[in-house]
Amino acid sequence: MAITGIKGFNDILPGEVEKWQYIEATARRVFELYGFSEIRIPIMEKTELFARSIGDATDIVEKEMYSFVDKGDNRVTLRPEGTASVMRAFIEHKLYAQDSVSKLYYMGPMFRYERPQKGRYRQFHQIGAEVTGVVDPMIDAQVLNMLCHFFAELGLTEPRLEINSLGCPECRPAYRQALKDFLRSRLELLCDDCKRRFETNPLRALDCKAAGCKEATAGAPSVLDNLCAGCEDHFSKTKQYLDSAGTPYSVNSRMVRGLDYYTRTTFELVTGLLGSQSAVAAGGRYDGLISELGGPAIPGIGFAMGVERVALLLSDKNFTRRPDLFIAALGTEARGFAFKLMGELQAKGVSVEIDYDGKSLKSQLRRSDKFNSRFTLVIGEDEIAKGTAQFKDMDKGTQADIRLETQDIFAALRP
Ligand code: HAM
């Protein structure tokens, strides 16, 4: 029996991959407008990096990581996200010494052992961006503007931006306590997961989808009513900057992120078009993470989008590439000529397809249609003798004689 791929690990086949390349190229182009440089980080890190940054009591660290002990007895993990690795590299290479502000983006596969379904996979891909060194809420708004700019460039009006503030180590403990006091008498209503994490992470109940958790948290105190003056000011200035840029958003005080490193601004780009996997991109501020990982006290903010989810939103668009020219050649001499012509045109930057099997003219033209080539050139023994051939414009449905000279054909392809 043939060996199949692993559940939740997908191949991205030609036909689909063009869409991915378009998404990646758009991200590079837009992010570079905002001063971001690419960083490439390894796929595997020491397990403790994720335990310490994402948090021991999170679903990701508790049950979703691909962790194992390697042949040298090291505990390693396939990265479940990019922020921790980028910050590890930022500290390790002292990037903060080069400039007080650093803007980095990354793209690549991430790994989480989740139950696969539409929009949720075990190997999935993120494109993310991280800024370090800026406290001012201007950067919160700029990062969000950049993310919305990216989606606008793709022609997507979905997803919508939701924002929240999760406070800071000064105000969050009191809010946590207030929420726990509120939930204590409703504990029985909570789902098993939220019951289990009531002590370690009670905020998760706020955005849990279970009916009992929704009922239990109805009327719960809002994090936004419990921010300290500094966090309150930061959040209101972030909103002012977004307003001044004309970036639409709504405030969702129940948004709680599944990673522990967030402080102050958090956000998600959500859509109703992907069933239960509603977050297409998400992120927030993490002012304590770099020092938590042993670096200096430098603030940070960033996001990551799920490329599979972005691709699903683009599903009705056709990104398949079409060759500039298809050469249909009949007979040994014509095939030899076509082979040489093809190489010369490709060297000049023209994409050319050909039939390799020496099939009938009809079958070669069928193949040209299948490729949806822009132009077709038909060459046989007569054409070689005359030095001219028929050159068809497949979009216009017209045809004309053309000299069988590389220069002439090149000029006709590039009007
Ligand atoms: P996250 O919310 O865990 O945040 O993931 C970000 C995005 O990755 C999600 O919104 C979703 O689109 C996609 N995603 C997550 N898990 C899966 C999955 N199993 N299958 C498909 N797509 C998935 C982070 O990872 C943070 N590092 C974001 C960040 C960057 N915060 C600050 N900087």
UniProtKB/TrEMBL annotation:
<keyword id="KW-0436">Ligase</keyword>
<dbReference type="Pfam" id="PF13393">
    <property type="entry name" value="tRNA-synt_His"/>
</dbReference>
<feature type="binding site">
    <location>
        <begin position="261"/>
        <end position="262"/>
    </location>
    <ligand>
        <name>L-histidine</name>
    </ligand>
</feature>
<dbReference type="GO" id="GO:0005737">
    <property type="term" value="C:cytoplasm"/>
</dbReference>
<keyword id="KW-0963">Cytoplasm</keyword>
<dbReference type="InterPro" id="IPR033656">
    <property type="entry name" value="HisRS_anticodon"/>
</dbReference>
<keyword id="KW-0547">Nucleotide-binding</keyword>
<dbReference type="InterPro" id="IPR004154">
    <property type="entry name" value="Anticodon-bd"/>
</dbReference>
<feature type="binding site">
    <location>
        <position position="257"/>
    </location>
    <ligand>
        <name>L-histidine</name>
    </ligand>
</feature>
<feature type="domain" description="Aminoacyl-transfer RNA synthetases class-II family profile">
    <location>
        <begin position="23"/>
        <end position="323"/>
    </location>
</feature>
<comment type="similarity">
    <text>Belongs to the class-II aminoacyl-tRNA synthetase family.</text>
</comment>
<dbReference type="InterPro" id="IPR004516">
    <property type="entry name" value="HisRS/HisZ"/>
</dbReference>
<keyword id="KW-0067">ATP-binding</keyword>
<dbReference type="InterPro" id="IPR041715">
    <property type="entry name" value="HisRS-like_core"/>
</dbReference>
<protein>
    <recommendedName>
        <fullName>Histidine--tRNA ligase</fullName>
        <ecNumber>6.1.1.21</ecNumber>
    </recommendedName>
</protein>
<dbReference type="GO" id="GO:0004821">
    <property type="term" value="F:histidine-tRNA ligase activity"/>
</dbReference>
<feature type="binding site">
    <location>
        <position position="112"/>
    </location>
    <ligand>
        <name>L-histidine</name>
    </ligand>
</feature>
<feature type="binding site">
    <location>
        <position position="130"/>
    </location>
    <ligand>
        <name>L-histidine</name>
    </ligand>
</feature>
<dbReference type="Pfam" id="PF03129">
    <property type="entry name" value="HGTP_anticodon"/>
</dbReference>
<keyword id="KW-0030">Aminoacyl-tRNA synthetase</keyword>
<dbReference type="InterPro" id="IPR006195">
    <property type="entry name" value="aa-tRNA-synth_II"/>
</dbReference>
<feature type="binding site">
    <location>
        <begin position="81"/>
        <end position="83"/>
    </location>
    <ligand>
        <name>L-histidine</name>
    </ligand>
</feature>
<dbReference type="InterPro" id="IPR036621">
    <property type="entry name" value="Anticodon-bd_dom_sf"/>
</dbReference>
<dbReference type="GO" id="GO:0005524">
    <property type="term" value="F:ATP binding"/>
</dbReference>
<dbReference type="InterPro" id="IPR045864">
    <property type="entry name" value="aa-tRNA-synth_II/BPL/LPL"/>
</dbReference>
<dbReference type="InterPro" id="IPR015807">
    <property type="entry name" value="His-tRNA-ligase"/>
</dbReference>
<comment type="subunit">
    <text>Homodimer.</text>
</comment>
<feature type="binding site">
    <location>
        <position position="126"/>
    </location>
    <ligand>
        <name>L-histidine</name>
    </ligand>
</feature>
<dbReference type="GO" id="GO:0006427">
    <property type="term" value="P:histidyl-tRNA aminoacylation"/>
</dbReference>
<keyword id="KW-0648">Protein biosynthesis</keyword>
